[in-house]
Amino acid sequence: MKLIEIDKSNWLNVVFLTTNKESMPTLCEEFVASNALSIVQAQFEKTWITKAIEMDGQLIGFTMYGFSEEQNFFELCRIMIDRKFQGNGYGPKAILLVVEEMKKLEGCNEIYLSTEPNNERGKRIYEKLGFENTGRIVENEELYCLKL
């Protein structure tokens, strides 16, 4: 598994990755904003980095991470594995890849992420990887932190 650049050759395939059961991407999916929205956001908010997640030459997911100017902290803002590839343990591996990339960002001593309160599966994964619930709610989502 590796993180790869999103470019002219793959951007459309990245946009069509989805977590929706109907296999059709929407602007806001159950637990994550769409990849299309994230890619556009990163074009205007230059502190975000977007990458596709690739496994054995196949696109399986998407991530967006960087410095949140609004919150004033480093954040793993988006992480998704396409519904066709869920349940194979790819999510935790992808998160660890992103964490390793974020460790290289100057000044990054802790990584925040937030999730819907009813995303029980996601919260278990985050906690297994060392993220701790801060007890704070940001934009109706529970805030987690990983100290590096």
Describe this structure in words.
26% of the residues lie in helices and 34% in strands. It has four helices and seven strands.
List the helices and strands and how they pair.
Elements (H helix, E strand, L loop, with lengths): L1 E3 L6 H5 L19 H10 L3 E8 L2 E11 L4 E9 L8 H14 L6 E6 L4 H9 L3 E7 L2 E7 L1
Antiparallel strand pairs: 1-2, 2-3, 3-4, 5-7, 6-7
Strand percentage, roughly? 25-35%
Uncertain regions: pLDDT < 50 for 5+ in a row?
none
Radius of gyration: 14 Å
| Estimated structural class | alpha+beta
Helical segment count: 4
Number of individual domains: 1
Distance between the termini: 22 Å
CATH superfamily: Gcn5-related N-acetyltransferase (GNAT)
Short description, anyone?
26% of the residues lie in helices and 34% in strands. With 148 residues, the protein is of the alpha+beta class. The two termini are 22 Å apart.
